[in-house]
Amino acid sequence: MTAAPATEPATAVPSAKAPTQFPFASLTADAGAAADPVLVEIVQGSLASVEMEVETAIGRTSRSPMIRDAHDFRAGIHDRLLRKLTGRSYSALVHPVARDFPVEQMREGDVFFHNDVYRSEGGIGHLPDLCVTVPVFSRGPSADASGGSTGGGAPRVVAFVQAFGHHDDIGGAVPGSMPSGATSVFEEGLMVPPIKLWDAGVPNRAALAIMTRNSRMPESLAADLDAECSACLMGARRLGELFDRYGVEVVESAFDAIIDRTTTTYRREVLGRIPVGSWTWEDYAEHDGVDDPRLHTQRITLTRTPADDPDGERLVIDFDGTGPQARGPINHCGDYSDGVFLKKWLAPVLRNLAATPERMAELDVNEGVVPLIEMRFPEPGTLLTPVFPAPTNARTFVILRLLGVLAGAVAKAVDGQMPADQETIRYTGVYGDDAEGRPYLMREVLGGGSGGRPHGDGEDTIHVVPDSRNLPTEFTEARFPFLVERLSLAVDSGGAGRFRGGLGYEKHVRMLRDAHFMSIADRSILACWGVRGGLAGAPFQVTIDPGGPHEREVDALADAEPVRAGEVIRIRTTGGGGWGDPLERDPALVVRDVVWRKVSPEAALAAYGVVLTGSLDEPGQEPGHRLGHDADATRAERAARPPRGPAFFDRGPGYASLAGGAAHADVDLVGPSADLG
Q: Could you count the other beta carbons within 10 Å of the beta carbon of residue 166?
C-alpha cells in the first residue's frame, strides 16, 4: 500500500506495488518427489490429528460463547517456510510474526500474538480476531525412516502451530468491538501488532493486563487467550514429536509432497475444467453503516491462461473495477503479501468443479493452491486496498461476497455448472444487565442457506465458517435473561429453482429484561443470487415485537436498538439462491417441500407453477397425507408463464432499488452479446 498517514509508521505498511515478499519455495531439492508415499500419509494424518486436538482443547477450555459454543475459531499448521499444510479449514498467516521476529532467535515456549489488521499481511480481517502463533522445535537434524535418530543438536524451528478466533470484546466504541458506524479503525478496539506474549514459557503479564483492561469481558478474554496459548503449545509438542521420531529431512520431504500433490490435483481436476479465456462478473455490498445504502462494487475478471503461457498455466484474478474504499467498516486489507491469504480463502470455491460432490469433499486447500493463482489488485484506496486507518470490522461484507463473485465468474465460464450464491456471516446479539445487575453480552453467528447446485438442492442453515454452529438454547437461557421461543427453518427463504436454494433460520427470542439488540449483517436488500434461471433467495430480516403494538423493522446494521422486557426479536436469515428454471422442478418435489414446510402453498403456485390438490392438514389424516398436485393444470400453468429474461443471474427485487430500477447488471448477461471482459 502507499505511504501511510503520519499516524502510522511508514515502514509498517508495505507498498501495494512492492508487497512484502515471502516467495513460494520448497523445503527439499526435489520438492518431495522422493518421499515415501506411506510416510506421506502418516505425516498428513498426524497433521490433521494435531490440528483437531488443538481445536478440541480450545473448545473445551475456553470460556466465551463465541469460542466455546459457536466455535468461531480456527487452528492451522504451517511449515518453516510459512506454508499452510492443513486443509480442513482456513487459518490466519504466520508471515507477520516471521517478518517482525527472526526465526533463529525464537525459543521453545515462545508464544506470539497479534490482531492488528494493517500489520497482519492480510491474515486478520478485524480486531476481534485474535491470533496466537507457537513455533515448533526439533533437536535432531535428521533421522532414518525407521525412527532411529542419526544425530542431535540445538533445537531449531521446523514449523508453526497457530490459532485465531473471534473474541467477545477487545474494546472500542460499542460492546463486541464491531461499531457499525465506525469511520476509523481507532473506534474498533485495541490494536496489537505482533508481540511476544509468552517468552520461553513465561507469560507477559503486562501485555495481558493491558488487553483485559480494554475489554468489557475481561474474564472471558483472559480465559480464551489462556486456552489458545496452552492448546497451541500442546500442539507444538505433539508436532515436535513427529520430527523427533522420523527426522527433519524425512518430515519436510513429506510436507513438500503434501503441498505438491495439492498443486497437481488442482491443476488437473479444477483448472482442467475451465476453458482458456476471460470472464468478468461483479457483486455488491449494500451498505457500509455510514452512508446511505448503495452498490459497493466488488469485481473480478477471471482469466484462465493456456498451458504454454510464458508465466505458466494458472488462474489470474484481477480485481480492477472494485469500488472505492468505504467510509464505513466494510473494507478488507486483501493486497498484502501478493494476496496469499485471499488465494487460500477463495480456492474452496473452485472445488465445486470436481467431478463429483464426493470428490469435492476430498480436496484440501493448503499452500499448494498458491502457485496456481495470480492476483492483481487495484491501486490503494479501494474496498480491497484500504488505506490506514480505514475501519474494517464488517469486512465480512466484502471478503465473503468475493466467494460469490468468483463463483459467478466461474459460472459464466462453465455454463452455470456452479452452485448459486450462499449465505454470508451475520452477527446478531443482545447486551444489557442481568437480574443481579451484572453486564452481559450474547452474540451469535447464525447461518443461512447454501445455493442450489447442478446436481441438487442447497443445504439448509449451513454456517460458512467451518464447524461453527448456533448457540444451544439450553445454554443461552441458563446464562442470559431471555427465552428462545422458536428456532426453525424460514419458510420460502430458499430461492426457487430446478434445484431449490437452502433455507435460512427463523429464530424468536423473548427478552425478560430491557436490553439492546445489535446486528452486523448484509444481504438485507440484495439477496443471494440465483443462476441459470434460478431465483434469488429471501434476504435477511429482523423484526422486533412482530404482531405487537410496537412492531418495527430493525436495520441490518444496528449497534444499540432498544428492546423492552417482554418483546420478541424475530430474526430471519438469508436463503440460498436457486439453480435452474423453477418451472422445470419436479412437481412431486414441490409437493414434498410444502409438506415439509419448506415452501408455502402460495409459493408452490407463484414460484413453481404447481397447482396443488387436497389439503395440507386435513383432520384425521397425517400432515400432508392428502396433498398432491394436478398434473394437467400444472402443465397448463407453466406453459402460460412468459419466458424468463436474458440475464444469467437473478439478484432479486432489492437490486433494482439500488440500481436505479435496472433489472440486472450488464455483467449478468452471457453469450455473443454479453461483455465477458
A: 26
Closest CA to 493 of 538, 527, 461: 538
Q: What is the pLDDT of residues 578-595, one digit of tens each?
A: 999 999 999 999 999 999
> pLDDT by residue (tens digit) across 541-560?
999 999 999 999 999 999 99
Cell of 182: 465506525
142-147: long-range pairs with CB below 8 Å, 24+ = 142/247, 142/248, 142/249, 142/250, 143/244, 143/245, 143/246, 143/247, 143/248, 143/250, 144/247, 144/250, 145/36, 145/39, 145/246, 145/250, 147/245, 147/246
Identify which of 296, 382, 403 has the alpha carbon closest to the alpha carbon of residue 16.
382
Distance between CA atoms of 537 and 533, rounded to whole angstroms?
13
Residue 177, Ramachandran bin (φ over 0: left; ψ between -120 and 50: alpha; else beta): left
Instruction: Specify the DSSP element, H or E, that contains 506.
Output: strand 505-511
The answer to whether 543 and 553 have CB atoms below 8 angstroms apart is yes
Write down the pTM of the prediction.
0.92
DSSP secondary structure code for residue 556 in this structure: S
Burial 215-230 (b: 16+ CB within 10 A, else e): bbbbebbbbbbebbbb
